[in-house]
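User: Could you write out the 3D structure of this protein bound to iron/sulfur cluster? I've included everything you need below.
Assistant: Certainly. Input first, then the structure.
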Amino acid sequence: MRPFTNPTGRALQAGLHHPHHLRRHPLVVKRFIGIPPAFLLDDYTPRHQLLTSVDASKKRSLAYAHLRECNLCPRKCGVNRYETTGMCMIGATTAKVNVIAPHRGEEPCIQGYHGSGSVFFSGCNLRCVFCQNHDIAHQRNGTDLTPEELAEWYLKLQKVGNVHNINLVTPEHVVPQVVLSILAARDMGLRIPIIYNTSAFDSLDSLKLLEGLVDIYLPDFKVWRDSTSKRLLKADKYTATAMESIQEMHRQVGDLSFTSDGIAQKGVLLRHLVMPGMEGEGREIMRWLAENVSTDLYVHIMEQYHPDAHVGKKKRVTRKSVSTGQSRSRTENEAHSAEGTGEVRYADINRAVRDDELNSVRDAAVKAGLWRFCEVNEQNSAFHL
Ligand code: SF4
């Protein structure tokens, strides 16, 4: 879903330097779409436009306060980010950004005709061993931007890119900077919706701070079992946090709704990436969503699992045991023997997802009562809305 890989500051410019390509391809032919009336909007005004100036200044003060004792994600480091950093390694005055560009790799209702104005933040509060963007998320490649500089980029995306929305990707650890940037951008003339594109490892405090500023929440509900989140995401209590967060997101913006052009304007779009051998967890997630969020929830069951980061890499051999010849621990011995046999790390998830695994999650979703899926209608190649 995130095709941009250039990890340099130059990449920030790449998406907007050549606006003429947009003129060469003006409007794609109208798609055949059918929007259920309950989710069709006559018109839409982004929520940040409706915020009073009193509420806006309250949010500004709260954003600064949170940075002084950071509890903005479930890690709850409690640090003053003006003086030091917590687990996410990002300070207070800027956010690190890897790429800003109109993006056509999102769901059709998000990318629309001109693309989604995506801002890919560097750093992350999770450490997924299969991360496809680990150069951005774990190594924090990118450029530091103040909230005001971010706001200027949102305006460029709107004006030059003619994008349908501002899509904040992996923003969980920079929520105060994001809030300040949206408030600055609305004063500068931003008039398109804001998307909060998250792993769902958010705290309720940060979601309250975002209330009234975000139009579309795009959470990825990743895994179901605590043992899995501990092993693969390096996070405790991921599932409980995701449940609480998704319910709060749905309380704020409801089910996904569209204007008549098929572009999503407000609501929750829930993603779940099916992982090899973990279709049972996917089925549990679908059941829980139907029973505890909404059977009208718009769901994208994703099949494009393609591991990177640590998955499939050779197991490591410690330098100490090699150079000193000292007796090795059991783990080190296992690593040595694995190296010899070509064994790799996280071998159980080092493969593509099979059709039967994918279908099993889809069937469970339908059985649970979910019915709004982001998938191609095979009869007319259109997308269900
Ligand atoms: S946002 Fe960063 S500093 Fe704040 S609690 Fe999370 S990991 Fe810690």
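The pocket of iron/sulfur cluster is lined by residues 70-73, 75-77, 79, 86-88, 125, 173 (CB under 6 Å).
User: Perfect, thank you.
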